[in-house]
Fold this sequence. Notes:
Elements: H1 7-19, E1 25-27, H2 30-40, H3 44-48, E2 53-55, E3 73-79, H4 81-88, H5 95-105, E4 109-114, H6 121-132, E5 136-137, H7 151-166
Parallel strand pairs: 1-2, 3-4, 4-5
Helix pairs in contact: 1-7, 4-6
Amino acid sequence: xxxxxxxxxxxxxxxxxxxxxxxxxxxxxxxxxxxxxxxxxxxxxxxxxxxxxxxxxxxxxxxxxxxxxxxxxxxxxxxxxxxxxxxxxxxxxxxxxxxxxxxxxxxxxxxxxxxxxxxxxxxxxxxxxxxxxxxxxxxxxxxxxxxxxxxxxxxxxxxxxxxxxxxxxxxxxxxxxxxxx
Length: 181
């Protein structure tokens, strides 16, 4: 979890992964903790309670910093442009970016829920570089074809789509049913 707006995505993902019986490991940047407090009223302790294991970003010796620690996937939610740039350029200078680097080198699924708009050329180039290395760039853009009635429904839809990308069988993203029927 980084300092971009959209802390609700990280919290909802942790909740859904727990509901699905998946083990979660959390790295929240200091700015991410500030945002979860500002946007959702949660402190670090409440955020960390949502994960099975929590780490400090400075804990570069943590298990998730090694490719020998088997994981299925990693999601950076929300993903700031600073973190995107570090990941795209292999600057593994903290645990979050190191774990992302390990995820890529081990050819595991890395989903980056980038949060910024409009994009400048550096953002676009960094998204291209991350994609070329195997990451999935997933801006949590809302879908309206299912006629959401609340922000909660919009958040849930994006989260369910990410869970489906991760191969979580319990994911229930709303699918397009086509016109005329």
